[in-house]
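Page 47, continued from p. 46.
Same chain as before, 64 aa.
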Amino acid sequence: MDLTTIRRNIDSGQIRTTAEFQRDVLLMLSNALMYNSREHSVHTMALQMHEEGCYMFLITPSLS
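Result:
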C-alpha cells in the first residue's frame, strides 16, 4: 500500500468512507515499519506518523 494506490482507490470509488481511508493509511504506515529497519529514516518517520495517526483517528469522529 502506498499513497498513489490510496489516491487511485479513492478516485475509483474503492475507498468510500473515512474509516476505509484510515484503514489504508495505517496499513501503509504499518508496512513501512515492517519492511524498513529501525535505523532507516523511513521507519522513524512512519513510526511517528503511525502514532499520530492512531491518536487522531481515535479522537476524531467519523465523517462518513
